[in-house]
């Protein structure tokens, strides 16, 4: 799924939870950041190559929007780091380990981690074998589930229509929760 949709779905989730349990603005922002982070973090080696070596912004942009087989050429080390950061950030075992570590320190679930988890779960089903299947069991395997490619036009339309519908429902139900039925 695209990064905007990931962030919007995390915002929807936070809004729904906020109705039952108050979430601080910091918690919501951290949740949204963690929902977007898996698609941003793996770009850092490419950005570093651009900023500190002989890379280019065109290569960074090209990599960010590439379709399989049409990624720009990258130095081997940059490609390696980028690939493994992508795998790490889309890995359920690694997210589980991070969740357990944070749980051990806090003695409770840190809500923003659900942003990261939502990203992983959504991507498992919205990436296909032909369009960057998500290595959800990395480092044990780099294989991914063959879902629907989020770039499929009908799916993108359906996804954003669903987001719009849920957003309208949230706004409408918020008004009725507060007794504001409008003019």
TrEMBL record:
Pfam families: YdjM
Source species, domain of life: Bacteria
GO MF, one example: hydrolase activity
Keyword Transmembrane: yes
Record field: transmembrane: 28-52, 83-103, 110-134, 154-172
Keywords of this entry: Hydrolase, Membrane, Transmembrane, Transmembrane helix
InterPro entries in UniProt: YdjM-like
Protein name: Metal-dependent hydrolase
Record organism: Ideonella aquatica
């Amino acid at each position: 799924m695209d990064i905007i949709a990931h962030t919007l779905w995390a915002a929807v989730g936070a809004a729904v939870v906020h109705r039952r349990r108050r979430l601080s603005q910091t918690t919501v922002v951290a949740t949204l950041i963690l929902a977007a982070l898996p698609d941003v973090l793996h770009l850092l080696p490419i950005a570093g190559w651009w900023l500190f070596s002989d890379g280019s912004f065109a290569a960074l942009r090209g990599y960010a929007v590439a379709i399989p087989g049409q990624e720009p050429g990258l130095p081997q080390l940059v490609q390696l780091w980028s690939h493994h950061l992508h795998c790490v950030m889309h890995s359920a075992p690694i997210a589980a380990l991070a969740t357990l570590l944070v749980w051990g320190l806090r003695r409770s679930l840190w809500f923003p981690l659900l942003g990261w988890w939502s990203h992983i779960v959504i991507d498992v089903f919205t990436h296909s074998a032909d369009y960057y299947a998500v290595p959800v069991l990395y480092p044990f395997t780099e294989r991914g589930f063959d879902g629907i490619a989020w770039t499929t036009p009908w799916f993108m339309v359906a996804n954003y229509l669903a987001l719009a519908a849920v957003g309208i429902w949230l706004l409408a139900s918020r008004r009725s929760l507060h007794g504001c039925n409008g003019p």
